[in-house]
């Protein structure tokens, strides 16, 4: 337990998640990032098919760019609400 000289001083109270909560949140965020990376890899594999029509190739390229943009949007952290939105999109 952390000791503070003045327990009533709001500026001395810790902000954000506790250490135990931080691990759980980090693990959830890593799981969502892994889902997005797997989706991107799957799209890259699909794009290797030489029998794709130009329209299908274009659609897959657009999907891949969307996934890459989503990955970049949370690369430097991202909020819980952003991760929740992405989780519902990529599960």
Order of helices and strands: HHH
| Amino- and carboxy-terminal Cα gap | 38 Å
What amount of the residues lies in strands? under 5%
Mean pLDDT: 78
Q: Summarize the amount of helix as a percent range.
A: 55-70%
Instruction: Tell me the quaternary state.
Output: single chain
Instruction: Assign an overall shape.
Output: elongated
- Going by helix content, strand content and strand pairing, the class is mainly alpha
DSSP summary: helix tally: 3
Cα radius of gyration in angstroms: 20 Å
| Poorly predicted spans | none
Biggest pleated-sheet summary = none
Q: How many DSSP-defined strands?
A: 0
Task: Give a brief description.
This protein has 91 residues and is mainly α.
Q: Can you walk through the features of this model?
A:
With 91 residues, the chain is an all-alpha fold. 66% of the residues lie in helices and 0% in strands. The protein has helices spanning 19-47, 54-73, 80-90. Helix 1 runs antiparallel to helix 2 and helix 1 runs parallel beside helix 3. The protein is elongated, with a radius of gyration of 20 Å. 4% of the residues are buried.
């Amino acid at each position: 337990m952390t000791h503070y000289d003045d327990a009533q001083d709001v500026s001395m109270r810790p902000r954000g998640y506790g250490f135990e909560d931080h691990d759980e949140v980090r693990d959830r965020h890593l799981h969502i990032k892994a889902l997005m990376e797997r989706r991107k890899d799957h799209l890259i594999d699909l794009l290797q098919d030489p029998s794709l029509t130009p329209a299908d190739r274009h659609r897959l390229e657009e999907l891949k760019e969307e996934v890459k943009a989503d990955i970049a949007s949370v690369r430097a952290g991202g909020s819980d609400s952003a991760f929740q939105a992405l989780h519902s999109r990529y599960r």
